[in-house]
Amino acid sequence: MTLSLDPPHTNYERLRDIIRGDIMTGVLAPGSRLKIAELSERYGISAVPVREALQQLQGEGLIELTANRGASVRRIDETFLWQVYEIRKALETFFVVELAYRVTPADIEKLYGILAEQEAALAKFEDGKFQDLDRRFHNHIVSVTQNEEAISVLNRHYDLIRPLRIRFGRSADQRARIPREHREIIDAIQRRDSGRASLLLSAHIDQAFKDLAGEMQRNEEPAATRSRG
């Protein structure tokens, strides 16, 4: 595959995103070795951006470096997933309290607008759009504080989780529950009930982790059964 570069991404940023997606969707299998020459040929790009992309993915925890094996793909297991969601929960529950204190009518209008679009996407079975709107909803909670570092961390985590959501999907019940929970969170913010907003958002994120971990486990069980057979 030849890499297509679109501004404002640099070569290594674009490549990093593609390799990250290939890791999270299993195209690059857990434990597989990542050799710069092979990746350069695979993605049709020079060695320098490949090396830079691998360094950043190591920082994200997706790649492991060992003395004997070099770079290899880390296994994306429940522990890794839990760590990602715990960081997200700590950040978002902190900022939703801030939002409840300083919320404006424009914020409420924005959140309800996102919710309406998400409900429409749910009705039309537009899963990709549904996921993008989920990201917009959560990002708005943080963005009102103008904390760019927190937004950057959350965006990186969404970039990690999105390929897993595409790969493992959600049940119909899970998809239907998300807008309902978003509405409850907005209602608490609108009432300036920071404590309830924080509790609702914490439970919402915990459930998101359980849903995805459960889907991953259910998909792994048939493979394990086949390997034993």
TrEMBL record:
The keyword Transmembrane helix does not apply. PROSITE patterns: HTH_GNTR. Keywords: DNA-binding, Transcription, Transcription regulation. It comes from the Bacteria. Gene3D superfamilies: GntR ligand-binding domain-like (1.20.120.530), Winged helix-like DNA-binding domain superfamily/Winged helix DNA-binding domain (1.10.10.10). The keyword Nucleotide-binding does not apply. Pfam families: FCD, GntR. Residues 9-76 form the HTH gntR-type domain. GO terms for molecular function: DNA-binding transcription factor activity; sequence-specific DNA binding. This is Transcriptional regulator, GntR family. It comes from Bradyrhizobium canariense.
